[in-house]
Design a protein that fits this description.
With 150 residues, the chain is mainly alpha-helical. The protein folds into two domains: 61 residues, no CATH class; 77 residues, no CATH class. The protein is built from seven helices and two strands. The chain has a two-stranded antiparallel sheet with strand order 1-2. A hairpin with a 2-residue loop joins β1 and β2. The longest helix has 20 residues. It starts with a helix and ends with a helix.
Length: 150
């Protein structure tokens, strides 16, 4: 199913991005492959409207629901329990939020929970160690991405 969607995206991308050698000499038209090798001529100015769809195409390359949430619904529910338990431990009843400054050792904590899982899958607070491993892995990834986007 995902392969089909990726094929569709490749197909759509081919529609909106003509190759330089496909642009005609007059500069007004370009060749656009539509399907099964069929080529049509399209006006360059029409392509400008198609380029606006590039952002939508990029969003479709990020299948958050179909590529993550639908794969791991139960696992993500367990991770959310870990998040809630961390809230109770660190923020004492305040609104649920992630205070990134309170725990900066995500990689170390992740490995500690992985080791603890091999001894007993359940932590003392009733949350699975593997859920805490996943939460810490997501936290480390998010912080890394935040720093890349600065």
């Amino acid at each position: 199913m995902i392969e089909d969607k990726l094929d569709q995206l490749s197909y759509l991308e081919a529609l909106v991005k003509p190759k330089v050698d496909d642009i005609q000499d007059d500069g007004l038209y370009y060749n656009r492959q539509v399907s099964n090798g069929v080529t049509v001529r399209a006006r360059i100015e029409d392509r400008e409207n198609e380029v606006k769809d590039d952002k939508a195409l990029e969003r479709k390359r990020t299948p958050v629901y179909s590529g993550v949430l639908s794969y791991f619904p139960d696992a993500l529910k367990e991770v959310s329990k870990s998040s809630l338990q961390g809230q109770k431990q660190h923020n004492h009843g305040e609104k649920l939020y992630w205070d990134k400054g309170k725990s900066t050792d995500n990689e170390d904590a992740m490995v500690r929970h992985l080791i603890d899982h091999s001894v007993n899958p359940m932590d003392d607070d009733g949350v699975l160690h593997l859920a805490k491993v996943a939460w810490r892995a997501l936290a480390a990834l998010q912080i890394y991405l935040d720093n890349q986007n600065k």
